[in-house]
Write a structure and sequence with these properties.
- By secondary structure, the protein is α/β, with parallel strands linked by helices.
- The chain is built from 8 helices and 7 strands, in the order βαβαβαβαβααβααβ.
- It is globular.
- The two termini are about 30 Å apart.
- Bound molecules: nicotinamide-adenine-dinucleotide.
Length: about 250
């Protein structure tokens, strides 16, 4: 069974579909109740296994409840994909560090970094008991480039990379893999306006593959990190963005 946070929309929704198509029981853990229900219904209507459990990744009791109910329902948690975040698809402030409001800093760090910590903290005891599990965390190319004028967002994503490495070292002896993956600027919006298109086209020139990235470009890497094919891969960061960043 695979828990995907933030799977009501965007790339998370695409992970959910791809995992379901591969036969996984998918749990959609999103703060958006209606969006989560709709995403799960689309999958079950298509004959797949999906369950929407409304969850706010900022609230530990809520996250603990998610894990408890998931285990009650499916006996185990094979994969946790920490994807939920505040990103430009929602309201996200951009500008200079010295102008960044304290409340806006906290708002983004709370979801994008603390949310990953809380979900991981709640799932680790379950995966330790199983002596297996895969935690996949979603970072961002802005961590490498420092681009985008989003100091809080980029810092949170850097923290996600750091936390992934610590967890990978701590959890190896329990057979738990922890890896990170980084999409580039991806056309994940539910509706594509001229402005969205312009923003996404802005990243094309710096890539080896000169085209707009879509969620379909990313989901296969998540699947690899969730599968037994990556059993000896841990603490790593895979950059899935057409070769704009190489490391
Ligand atoms: N789209 C891109 O260009 C891009 C680039 C690099 C990294 N990423 C990362 O990929 C992931 C998905 O991005 P996206 O473009 O699909 O974003 P999105 O805004 O479309 O989706 C984010 C999802 O997270 C959910 N969410 C927000 N706050 C939550 C909370 N407190 N608890 C639970 N769920 C919550 C939202 O409801 C939404 O469904 C994010 O981690 C993002 O940082 C995206």
């Amino acid at each position: 069974m695979t828990i995907i946070t933030g799977a009501a929309h965007g790339i998370g929704k695409a992970y959910a579909r791809r995992f379901a198509e591969e036969g996984a029981h998918v749990v959609i853990a999103d703060i958006d109740h209606q969006g989560g229900q709709a995403a799960a219904k689309a999958l079950t209507d298509a004959g797949f296994s999906a369950w929407a459990r409304t969850t706010d990744v900022r609230i530990y009791s809520d996250v603990e409840g998610l894990m408890r109910e998931a285990v009650d329902k499916f006996d185990r948690v094979d994969v946790l994909l920490n994807n939920a975040a505040i990103y430009v698809t929602q309201k996200l402030w951009k500008g200079a560090v010295e102008d960044l409001d304290l409340a806006e800093w906290d708002r983004v760090i709370e979801v994008n970094l603390k949310g990953v910590f809380l979900c991981s903290k709640a799932v680790i005891p379950i995966m330790k008991r199983q002596r297996s599990g895969k935690i996949i965390n979603i970072a961002s190319g802005t961590f490498f480039s420092g681009s985008g004028n989003m100091p809080h967002y980029t810092t949170a994503k850097g923290g996600v990379v750091a936390l992934s490495r610590v967890m990978a070292r701590q959890l190896g002896e329990y057979g738990i893999n922890v890896n990170c993956m980084t999409p580039g600027s991806t056309m994940s919006e539910d509706s594509v306006t001229e402005e969205v298109l312009k923003r996404r086209e802005g990243s094309v020139e710096k890539r080896a593959f000169r085209r707009i990235e879509t969620p379909a470009d990313i989901v296969g890497t998540a699947l690899f990190l969730a599968s037994s094919d990556s059993d000896f891969v841990t603490g790593q960061l895979l950059i899935v963005e057409g070769g704009g960043i190489m490391h």
